[in-house]
């Protein structure tokens, strides 16, 4: 790390490596672990947001906790949990720190990408590599940019190009690259080592929210990967694997990541309500000019009404997110245990569950994270309080892809019975 790019010190969390040396062994204990991580991050979340340092310490904390292994197979030391548990863990971490919840979510996606687009052998090999080394995985896969160009060199692929956004790459051990073979329309995903001269980070992530996600630009220059790491491709023929069971299943990658987004939005909003509640009960003053003056802010009708309304909408959003997580996990189980292909209708139906969560989590999240200022008071706008970080974090990522298109997609689904065509955002 260059001296010009300050980073947090992993030593500050060294004690947790021993404290959390044993992995949880059930869905319930994994979520307890996620809450413990959240409690640690909450202690200085506002300060770390303001300091805006590269989150090396925070990634080390995720590694110490074992959450980076949550979805991996148990035979290699992973948690063996389904995505439904992974989503809840992301939500818990995001309650305290939206940036770190986002990094965990992207890691869980990229560290298991071979499950979706790779061969069984590649998935097995990738899990062993990531879990045995406790690697953190980032990704340079921004569909809005031009695809990386892939040229062929014997038994190797060579990636070249750049991405305006990547997530977590600077603090990762492995990076997912995606590109198109030169002269074709063939896309290839591959995991490569992050620390190599051909991967050059711009260190230009200076946005208003999600400040600790290292989501800036990256240049890829002559980065090589063996054909054996071309996920889902046949090494001998240098062609995509001919397997009818893979026709629909890889398209689950996009609903999977869209639900990652919604869960850290939801976690941020839940964290905002919890943070604001503590502030209101300890620091907010009642309004003395309302006629029927109250002794405490917690007796104010408008404050009680707002908190109740926010709470009800967040509860409903949680229930919807959990339902969508269960639906998606069910499709993974169906494919991976029964080896039966998914139908386009099954994939489309789950995509619309996910779209529903995206719409609701966006609407409710923005309303709650901005509305809490009305029930905390003017002093809550002080920088030292840090209440603004919740809105800033949600506002930044909800612009990832326009939620208006999710509303339109749902409209076509309910009115016309149309399922969405798989795309980079659906």
Highlighted features:
Butyryl-CoA Dehydrogenase, subunit A, domain 2, Butyryl-CoA Dehydrogenase, subunit A, domain 3, two-stranded antiparallel ribbon, about 10% strand
Q: Overview of this structure, please?
A:
This protein is an alpha+beta fold. It folds into 3 domains: 127 residues, Butyryl-Coa Dehydrogenase, subunit A, domain 1; 103 residues, Beta Barrel (Butyryl-CoA Dehydrogenase, subunit A, domain 2); 168 residues, Butyryl-CoA Dehydrogenase, subunit A, domain 3. The strands form 2 sheets. Strands 1, 2, 3, 4, 5, 6 and 7 form a 7-stranded mixed sheet that branches. A two-stranded antiparallel sheet has the order 8-9. Helix 5 runs parallel beside helix 9 and helix 6 packs antiparallel against helix 9. The two termini are 36 Å apart. 46% of the residues are buried. It holds the Pfam family Acyl-CoA_dh_2.
SSE diagram, text form:
Layout: H1 15-19, H2 27-42, H3 45-51, H4 56-65, H5 83-96, H6 98-111, H7 113-117, H8 120-133, E1 137-140, E2 148-153, E3 156-163, E4 174-181, E5 187-193, E6 199-201, E7 218-226, E8 233-234, E9 239-240, H9 253-282, H10 301-338, H11 344-371, H12 388-397, H13 403-416
Parallel strand pairs: 1-4, 2-4
Antiparallel strand pairs: 2-3, 3-7, 4-5, 6-7, 8-9
Protein name: Acyl-CoA dehydrogenase N-terminal
Keywords: Flavoprotein, Oxidoreductase
Pfam family, one: Acyl-CoA_dh_2
CATH architectural group of the largest domain: Up-down Bundle
CATH T-level topology of the largest domain: Butyryl-CoA Dehydrogenase, subunit A, domain 3
CATH superfamily of the largest domain: Butyryl-CoA Dehydrogenase, subunit A, domain 3
Structural class: alpha+beta
Please state the CA-atom Rg, rounded to the nearest Å.
22 Å
What's the CATH class of the largest domain, please? Mainly Alpha
Mean pLDDT: 95
